[in-house]
Amino acid sequence: MTLPPLPDDAIVLRVDVADWRDAVRAAGRALARSGATLPGYADRMIDVLEEFGAYIVIAPGLALAHARPGPDVRRSGLAVVTLADPVAFGHPHNDPVRVVLGLAVSNAEEHVASVADLANVFNERDAIDRIAAAETPAEVRAVLHVSGGEGRPATDAAGAPS
Amino acid sequence: MRIVAVCGVGVGSSAILKGNAERALDRLGLTADVSASDLAGVREAAADAQVVLTSTELADRVREALGRTWAEIIEVENYFDVEEIGRKLDASLG
């Protein structure tokens, strides 16, 4: 099991957001744009935060926004949003957040292993800093060790269509 | 020995916590069956567990969901800090 591909559509760099809801919505838009979810999934990710608190800020500066599998998940997907200015999510230790990962899974059992792959990436201590500092989608993919996906060539791929 | 990693919805952060708890146990030379659970299912999932791992943010909710339990609830701050997880597991199990 490996992480879902991360096309350019699923990456938003240095976005301006007013608060944590905005930040999660940006991740939701990226997931919808890449075809992984329907737009309503963003609200379900916000609901998780409202119900359970900011526990999704799982490391200093990093939020893992996600919700349960549901009919608004078309296929498993990952999105990366970096923030121009960090925002507080309300976590006692790990605020403020600089990087939001948006995660959608179509089937809980199947994807626990895939999500665990994220641990391999972020166990490297500078991974969050490197993503926060990335200036291109290709740099983000390099840190996460993921591909841009098939079908739709990433703009950084050799021979990208003009 | 059984360990349960708990998060709100059971698909994201608990999976990461499970993976890094297994790494930490490995480094400590310990073996345990580590599973992931959501908050709603934690009572059943942790029925015969020695340790429940979760976020500081969720710890009170987990205590409430578990009621009376033999399991120790360990609060993890940084899910990617295998040393933190290992230190806390070692203090609990050692």
Automatic annotation (TrEMBL), chain A:
GO terms for molecular function: kinase activity. CDD domains: PTS_IIA_fru. Residues 4-147 form the PTS EIIA type-2 domain. GO terms for biological process: phosphoenolpyruvate-dependent sugar phosphotransferase system. The keyword ATP-binding does not apply. One of its GO terms (cellular component) is cytoplasm. Its main location: cytoplasm. Pfam families: PTS_EIIA_2. It is found in: Cytoplasm. InterPro entries: Ascorbate-PTS_EIIA_comp, PTrfase/Anion_transptr, PTS_EIIA_type-2_dom. Keywords: Cytoplasm, Kinase, Phosphoprotein, Phosphotransferase system, Sugar transport, Transferase, Transport. It comes from the Bacteria. The phosphoenolpyruvate-dependent sugar phosphotransferase system (sugar PTS), a major carbohydrate active transport system, catalyzes the phosphorylation of incoming sugar substrates concomitantly with their translocation across the cell membrane. The enzyme II UlaABC PTS system is involved in ascorbate transport. PANTHER family: ASCORBATE-SPECIFIC PTS SYSTEM EIIA COMPONENT. This is Ascorbate-specific PTS system EIIA component. It comes from Agromyces kandeliae.
UniProtKB/TrEMBL annotation, chain B:
Residues 1-94 form the PTS EIIB type-2 domain. It holds the Pfam family PTS_IIB. InterPro entries: PTS_EIIB-like_sf, PTS_EIIB_2, PTS_EIIB_2/3. Keywords: Transferase. It comes from the Bacteria. GO terms for biological process: phosphoenolpyruvate-dependent sugar phosphotransferase system. GO terms for molecular function: protein-N(PI)-phosphohistidine-sugar phosphotransferase activity. This is PTS ascorbate transporter subunit IIB.
